[in-house]
Amino acid sequence: MKKKVGIIGGGASGLFTACLLKNLASRNDVEVTILEKNPVPGKKLTLTGHGRCNITNRKPASELKNGYHEAGNFLYPALKEFGPDDTIAFFENELGFKTKEEDNNRIFPVCDSAVKVRDAIVSYISDSTDIICGINVLGIKKENDFEVSTSKGKYNFDYLVLACGGSSFPQTGSAGDSYKFAKGFGHTVIQAQAALASVNADERSAKLTGNLSGVSLTANVSVYCNDRKTASFCGEMMFTDFGLTGPAVMELSREIPGDISGMSVWIELDLIPSLSDEEFDLAFQDLIRDHPDSKITTLLSGYIPASVALEVASLAGISGLYAQSFTRENRKKAVREIKHLKIGIDQLPSLEKAYVTRGGVSLKEIDRKTFGSKLISGLYITGEAVDIDGVSGGYNLQACMSEAYLVTKDILGLK
Ligand SMILES: Cc1cc2nc3c(=O)[nH]c(=O)nc-3n(C[C@H](O)[C@H](O)[C@H](O)COP(=O)(O)OP(=O)(O)OC[C@H]3O[C@@H](n4cnc5c(N)ncnc54)[C@H](O)[C@@H]3O)c2cc1C
Question: How does residue 171 score in pLDDT terms, banded at 50, 70 and 90?
Fold first, then answer.
């Protein structure tokens, strides 16, 4: 008797599971069906890596796990069993892609095409998997087997993989249905919030970020909640007409609490992270002494972009001043604005444009060795549906791949 496996969602997680089921099953072991809401599978996958698909990150599992925040230890066994080298080998040997390594150990296909990755996966599984697109799963029940109600009738499966994503980038199909189905089975769902997202500034700060829109620089970016620094990250960031974006800001976006009502929340930018406050103050004093006839904004432009120097000078009330008339008090104000520039936040980063979702099905109810539900036998929950989010750099697709491997092994009864 063939095992009937249903996969809800033809995103990265569902497609990878179908790939590994084909790769590891004997031909007659399983009958695999993907039910995908969109007219074509892998819509979000085709957007990954700015259309180039950053498939994984070549770090040892012991280091890689640190990129998954609170879930690192939970995911560690999966990363050890099927890690970046296994993902690369699968892409090269099974899917026929040559891969290349870029900065920070990020791995891409040499062809730089996420669409080609999606197409190759679909072609790879086309003889082993029934991929049914344009079908909306509406509800799931389990009695003897899983009964799945869809917009096009009922389906029955022995095993069910819930891989219908989180709530981020809902225009690609992931609109939170995983949570609805998991809750229906009694699972706890941790509130979804944006991760790897741009951040909107409050009205006052948006004037400043808008004036600097498009300017990028390296900064130390910190989140403050009610006067307490809760996280910080140093890297590239960019000002926009609505607030802040860029890698450092996006990495930190998950640290903005899910409910900020009644809280005072801001992002603090240290625009010269290579120097401490004292070091910059001393260097600034030297500059002022050595160039008495220079405008202060000109001197600051040696450290930060000229447009940023003008904005912070205006905030510090020192616009137009020359070094010779600069007081100690003026200097302290300038140092404060440059090293502790405050960008007020009065709304949460939006899930609409977030790359991944923080939150999802509670890991307490998932078996870390199989990604099977601890509540319902035969049910597996993977990908963004579960409460795991990784930093950028190929971590999120690697998590989908590692989890898909554990699910496959468990369904096939492999040791
Ligand atoms: C712009 C962007 C760039 C990214 N770049 C990278 C990158 O380079 N590297 C990286 O590691 N990660 C990247 N990510 C993150 C990565 O794409 C996701 O973590 C990953 O796609 C999650 O896979 P998933 O299968 O869990 O969910 P999804 O890919 O969202 O797939 C879920 C699927 O389920 C379907 N579905 C939902 N509800 C139903 C239903 N009721 N019935 C039927 N089908 C349903 C959806 O249509 C969708 O196709 C990026 C994300 C974005 C948005």
Answer: very high
List the structure tokens of 276. Answer: 């401490």
From the CB of 13, is ligand 1 less than 6 Å away?
yes
| Ligand 1 atom at minimal distance to the Cα of residue 135 | 43
Q: What strands, in cross-sheet order, belong to the sheet with 99-101?
A: 56-57, 106-109, 99-101
DSSP 284-339: HHHHHHH-TTSBHHHHHTTTS-HHHHHHHHHHHT-TT-BGGG--HHHHHHHHHHHH
Sorted by where each begins, the domain ranges of the chain are 3-193+356-412, 198-349
Q: Which of 22, 54, 82 is nearest to 393 (CA)?
A: 54
CB of 38 closer than 6 A to ligand 1? yes
End-to-end Cα, the chain, rounded Å: 20
Atom 19 of ligand 1, nearest CA residue: 396
Report residue 66's pLDDT band, with 50, 70 and 90 as the boundaries: very high
Distance from C-alpha of 149 to C-alpha of 163, rounded to nearest angstrom: 16
How many A from CA of 99 to the centre of ligand 1?
21
Cβ(140) – ligand 1 distance below 6 Å: no
The rounded distance, in Å, linking the Cα atoms of 325 and 171 is 56
Does the beta carbon of 54 sit less than 6 angstroms from any atom of ligand 1? yes
Residue 1's pLDDT band (cuts 50, 70, 90): confident
- Kindly report, residue by residue over 250-304, the tens digit of the pLDDT: 999 999 988 888 899 999 999 999 999 999 999 999 999 999 999 999 999 999 9
Nearest to 29 by CA among 5, 47, 13, 7: 5
Q: Is the CB of 349 under 6 A from ligand 1?
A: no
Among 115, 1, 114, 102, CA closest to 57 = 102
* CATH code for the structural domain at 198-349: 2.40.30.10
Q: Which CATH number fits the domain 3-193+356-412, given the four candidates 3.50.50.60, 1.10.3720.10, 3.40.50.150, 3.40.50.2300?
A: 3.50.50.60
Contact 84 CB / ligand 1 (< 6 Å)? no
Structure confidence at residue 170 (pLDDT): 96
CB distance 117 to 109 below 8 Å: yes
Three-state secondary structure call for residue 133: strand
Backbone φ and ψ of 122, nearest 5° = -60, -40
Query: Encoding tokens for residue 318?
Result: 């020192």
